[in-house]
Amino acid sequence: MDKLLALVRREYVARVRSKWFIWTTLLAPVLLIGAMALPVILATQQAERALRVSVVDESGRILPELLETDAFSGGRFRFIPAPKSGTDPREELRRRVIDGLLDGYVYLPADVLGSGGAEYWTREGISPAEGLSGAITAAVQRVRASSLGLDPGAAQELTRQTRLRTYRVTAEGKARDQGQTVVAAHILGLIIYTVVLLYGSMMLRAAVAEKATKTVEIILSSVRPWQLMLGKTLGVGAVGLTQIGIWLMLVAVFLVYAGAAQAFADIEAMRDLPIGLDTLILFLGLFVTGYFVFGGMYASAGAIASSEQEASQLQIPVTIIAIIPILLIILVLDAPSSTLAIVLSWIPFFTPVLFLARYILGAVRGWEIPVVFALQLFTIVIVAWVGGRIYRLGLLMTGKRPTLPELIRWVRHG
């Protein structure tokens, strides 16, 4: 036990004291917070800037009503008259858009009141089109109402859309949901995926480095191979938990600040975040079990490889397995209670990402948690048993990379 603890302490202290650990610990939350804050700041600045828009109204009836809509009267769009000429002004407007004199122009065909549709031409993406679409729809409805002899205001009131608000059902009552659950599931799932891959590949590189420097022969003279593998796994895992703990504290400080900052105060999505103490405990549990599963697989790949180049090739299958749940998470988010989502989240290699997503969405039944962790622990035992046998022989093997039949023999007779 003393030798095992010495290995764990060696792996932990060596990595925590490194400049790499300090820089990644500090930079990762800064980049994450920047990625969260930058879109909000840019969206706020974009919303404050009025977009310059011209309108070509071939019907001759929509433009006056369009300029009365909130989109134009409220300052979101600034109307720039189209050039007056006997020819089609759209070519001149296209040149103005290209030259940056206009942000875009709207084309309303003569039959827009019938079956025709409107067009918006721009160089800056399609995001403003949503606001224009609502304004054009309101203007067309008012003109149609006037044509039918109806009061335009009453017609607009009849056709006013009803906003659907979504709430999560929780044990404490209800909570407003504006997509926070999906965003939280994505972010926490990506954190688990990133950290597990980061520290799993660290296990791989450590095994390759020790084989290359021959230090493993000295270490194995005093400890058993399984102790070396377990010591490395626990030491590197403790580094991961330390880094995640620091990240969570920094993110928590940011969320407290964001809740009080004016730029974020008006964003309802910042309220009622579906992340409580139970979610964080489950998150840590899934990270630890997921790390042990993939850490053992990466360690085995590192024991087989004789060089960094071979290691980069051998880690590809393990990395692909880790990527699969990120690709499948959309299926779980769309229907977290479906049979497919349940089965996928129970597969031990996918559990850390997909089961957490189902839990955040409130689709996990209480009895599933111990069952899933039992499956995770069973998988850890299998991976450790197989990986330990490969690790035992692979660390001392150099030269030709073993074939698949040779690996099977290692596992059977290791």
If you had to describe this structure to a student in words, what would you say it looks like?
There is one protein chain. The protein is α/β, with parallel strands linked by helices and 414 residues long. Helix content is 68%, strand content 7%. It has 17 helices and six strands. The protein has helices spanning 2-16, 19-48, 62-67, 70-73, 90-99, 129-147, 152-158, 180-213, 215-220, 225-260, 262-265, 277-304, 308-334, 339-346, 351-360, 368-394, 404-413, and strands at residues 51-57, 77-79, 104-108, 119-122, 166-170, 173-177. The strands form two sheets. Strands 2-1-3-4 form a four-stranded mixed sheet. Strand 5 and strand 6 form a beta hairpin. Helix 10 (225-260) runs antiparallel to helix 12. The longest helix has 36 residues, at 225-260. It starts with a helix and ends with a helix. Residues 173-178 and 262-270 have low confidence and may be disordered.
Keywords:
single chain, 414 residues, alpha/beta, four-stranded mixed sheet, two-stranded antiparallel sheet, 17 helices, 68% helix, ABC2_TM
